[in-house]
Amino acid sequence: MEEEPDNSTQVWSSAEAEPTSENLQELKGLPEIDATPALFENSGARIVLPSEMARHPMVVWLAILLFATGMLGLANGMDYIDGDSGLINHRNFIYRDTQNAAPGTAVLLGQVVYEDGSPAANHTVKVTVRDKNGSIFENQNTTDENGNFRIDGLNPGLQILLMANESKGTAQLVEHEILLSAKPPLSFEPLAFTTLKLTFPSDEAFDTEGDGTLISYVASEAENNTQLYDESAAGMYVMVGVGFSGLALIGMGATFLGLRSGNPGMLRTASILIFFTQGAYMSACCLGLVAFALTFALPKPRID
Q1: CA-based torsion, 167, 173, 179, 182: positive or negative
Q2: How deeply is 2 buried, as exposed, middle or buried, from its count of CB atoms within 10 A (0-12, 13-18, 19+)?
Q3: To the nearest 10°, the Cα dihedral for 110, 221, 206, 160?
Q4: Beta-ladder partners of 124
């Protein structure tokens, strides 16, 4: 016969396993464990930042060269923006664009005012045009009550403008050399518009600057390259100057970052940016090329 399991033993074991108030008192805290030694120790090694690496003297001198060349690029950009002084003159660019322009495509719009700003009504404005074949013709108009006028059928380029005031019996005449713009390239507009605001001198100016009846600014304007022109026609060249100045500033910023890190690639990028900012400053272009070549000879940064 099979023996029956001893249930009394199991019941007794369960009873013994039940927690008592004494056992609960002992389980209120975790047992203390002996402190073990640290698993990691400081080896003394640390990450060296690029700015903490020793710079080769060649990096410093190259950065100085790039900064100097970048300043030339910035000056070149400001020269383009100004356009009335320095090496760059907007009139030269506009005149160059007129050389291949079709004759009769220039339109002169303008206003004649007195020195106090009031409009000069009923004044004659005449433009004397010298054609490329040597022929001369004149187109003229009279200002309205607001001093405005329009003259069509002119040739782009340098022409002579005459203003006349015949309201005082003896005519008072003023001559200027003006630069009529050509139509912008790739433009579908068949005509080129030039807008000028002209000031008619006072009676005192005719006595001090002329012979009482005629004041001619043509000779001085031609000599000093200060012909009257439409400043809006130079907008494209102003944008070029803004681009040159921006590239120069970015290039100098890249030079600063390259100097801190000693990274030849960053300095090479700076030299390329600065090279394309020089324009008419051809000597600075050469400096940009020299700086670009020197970046290939830079040693790698080292840790002191």
Answers
A1: positive
A2: exposed
A3: -50
A4: 142, 164
- Confidence (pLDDT) at 143: 95
Rounded CA-CA distance 217/175 in Å is 6
Half-sphere exposure of 83 (CA within 13 A, CB side): 21
Q: Which residues is 111 bridged to in the sheet?
A: 148, 197
Tell the residue number behind the tokens 């008592």, with chain if given: 20
123, 143 contact by CB (below 8 A): yes
Can you tell me whether residue 140 is helix, strand or coil? strand
Other beta carbons less than 10 A from residue 298's beta carbon = 18
**Which residues partner with 137 through β-bridges?**
129
3-state secondary structure of 245: helix
- Residue 201 to residue 173: CA distance in whole angstroms: 10
Count Cβ atoms below 10 Å from residue 34 Cβ, excluding itself. 4
Rounded to whole angstroms, the Cα distance separating 170 from 210 reads 14
Contact 140, 125 (CB under 8 A): yes
**Residue-wise pLDDT tens digits, 139-190:** 999 999 999 999 999 999 999 999 999 876 678 999 999 999 998 777 778 8
Token pair 């291949």: residue = 100
Place of tokens 């927690």: 19
CA-closest candidate to residue 230, choices 173, 166, 154: 154
pTM of the model: 0.69
Nearest by Cα to 77 from 279, 224, 264: 279
Distance CA 251, CA 36 (A): 57
